[in-house]
Design goal:
Shape: globular
Distance between the termini: 53 Å
CATH topology of the largest domain: Rossmann fold
Helix content: 40-55%
Number of helices: 20
Strand order of the largest sheet: 2-1-3-4-5
CATH class of the largest domain: Alpha Beta
CATH architecture of the largest domain: 3-Layer(aba) Sandwich
Amino acid sequence: MADPVLIVDDEPRILESLGRLIEKEGWRAFLAKDGAAAEAILAREPGIALALLDVALPGEDGLAILARWTREHPGLTVILMSGHGTIEMAVQATRLGAYDFLEKPLSSDKVLVTLRNAQQKTRLERENESLRESAGFARTLVGRSAAIEALLEKIALAAPTPATVLITGESGTGKELVARALHDQSPRKDQAFVALNCAALPEELVESELFGHEKGAFTGAVAARRGKFEEAHRGTLFLDEIGDMSARTQAKLLRVLQDGLVTRLGGSVPVKVDVRVIAATNRGLEDAIARGLFREDLYYRLNVVPLAVPALRDHPEDLALLTDHFLALFARQMGRRAKKLDRAAIALFARHRWPGNVRELKNLIERLVILTPGEMIGGADVARQLPGLAPAAAAEPSSALAPSRPEAETEAEADDDDEEPAGQAAAGTLKAQLEGAEKIAIEEALRQAGTVSKAAELLGLERSHLYKKLRKHRLPY
């Protein structure tokens, strides 16, 4: 459908000629002879985003109308027109919020070029707003359980302060979401949020990424480069998987935290930085300290405010909310109607142990939304993506995703825990069953993906974490 344009002018000849001109070019023209008629059109046509507005109108003039529209119709892009324009009037129009100012007699080419530019601006603003809404929606911490409510309360208390924060939790629990929430609720929210995964890069690259380097500092350093600390100046630096940082980099990081000065690799002049550091780890740093793998003084410098993110299995009452959230998220991103899980699919979700936590749930739902035809996701669809679960379970109805029993164990989990082993080789302990299911899931993901990196994405795991599991199960890679 053509974009609508409101044209306001008290001269019938100009009004009609402008209407014919823009309709010939593909727009829909709405014509008004004064401010009152224009208001009536805006009331019944809320989709109008462009307006050509004459300054000299009977009653309320164009400048007064523009000032009011800027307040009452913030999504409306207005182009002013005048036969007696001056530089002072053009400046005033711009200050009042006009996109542009056209002098009469009007040039058809000038009118069309200005309208096209204004239309492009309007569309970009709408797309940016949609992207911001989607990004905010995607970054939302979801949950109403006691564990998540307690975490949100601690975030609200810590966020306004400059204190360093150490976030702990298993892979996939949402540690970066917590870090972003701390940033978004802090006085630094309008500054940069910079993230670095310390486990994803070799030692020499981690140092270069963190502290920057000068030209010629090492082979391949063909130009000087700022590090993450400099990029995050006045903002927040999130250091993920801090437990994988080498001893040498730990020492340099400690010095930066102590004095706020960064020296690039190959450089000699320190740079003052103002950065709030948030670190995260899925490893027990106390154990790493005991084994001499992590500096105790750095640990205490980072652990001013400790925040522990619970594993999904520790707040199963949030599974329904998370599922609905991700179904809505991917529907929005893909421009589709939100899909639903049938009772058999819900039963499988409730029985699954989610070793990859919320990331695994998110990735699974994305795959199901993409690969499942129709609007209902069935038990068979889920079973194909969760090979560690017996397909027969897909036929079991369950209310395990309903958050009406927040303090109780779900029926599906209770039934699973009470099952008697059919034989030593077939069942074994609960731990053995879970590990067996995990091994099957990893093997199936590797078969489907073909590479470890893609398999890690399918499983919702960090690549380094998947390598550990491959070694544990003695699987080839």
